[in-house]
Amino acid sequence: NAGVMQNPRHLVRRRGQEARLRCSPMKGHSHVYWYRQLPEEGLKFMVYLQKENIIDESGMPKERFSAEFPKEGPSILRIQQVVRGDSAAYFCASSLSGAYSNQPQHFGDGTRLSIL
Amino acid sequence: EDKVVQSPLSLVVHEGDTVTLNCSYEVTNFRSLLWYKQEKKAPTFLFMLTSSGIEKKSGRLSSILDKKELFSILNITATQTGDSAVYLCAVEPNAGNNRKLIWGLGTSLAVNP
User: Fold this and answer.
1) What tens digit of pLDDT does each residue of A4-57 get?
2) Confidence of residue B85 (pLDDT cuts 50, 70, 90)
């Protein structure tokens, strides 16, 4: 499967624990995007990364949330000290190239995060 | 504030019907508009539109953009039960190196046999 791969598909955490969500982009894609979808709300942009660089994190909460896309390995979205309000579906997307291109973003199946 | 509004929010039709889904937008600078289909899992890319008046077509689906009136429509002809899904519209503002998408809430389409 050459699509965007996210894992785990479902993640359950207790309040105060850490959540790590992983995303492997499509083969050949070096641009990764994270979105959050809350119940009854649309997708909201969180962060845009290239290899080893954060390009835009304007949608990320200032505290507890961080993202990385290392030179080797998947992109990681990390949520520390999770709270009930973090329960959502987190989608990762990737594209072949960045701005000023007509390459669409392709999405993974998402990680459903539930906070007990 | 940049925003995308889709209508209707939900729609129920019978197989064989033709449907038109609407997407209007307000963005400071426009780069592209995209349509996706979401069936419980990943949003699946359908179309990317950047120029007014040029119809994009894929099988029974087609879409067109009007940059003057700031809207797009997605048409589905001869609908099938497999077309049942949420159809999402997103706009990519032209903001330098940024590539974030602004999303509508989607139109939930149910096609009954």
Assistant:
1) 999 999 999 999 999 999 999 999 898 999 999 987 888 999 999 998 899 999
2) very high
Of A43, A56, A102, the CB nearest to B103: A43
Q: Please judge whether A108 and B42 are an interchain contact, meaning their C-beta atoms are less than 8 angstroms apart.
A: yes
Give the one of B4, B36, B99 whose C-beta lies nearest to A98's C-beta.
B99
The answer to whether the CB of A116 falls within 8 A of the CB of A12 is yes
DSSP track, B30-86: EEEEEEEEESSS-EEEEEEE-STT--EEETTEEEEEETTTTEEEEEE-S--GGG-EE
Residue B13: φ, ψ to 5°: -135, 175
Q: What is the DSSP letter of A60?
A: S
Whether B41 and chain A come into contact, CB under 8 Å, resolves to yes
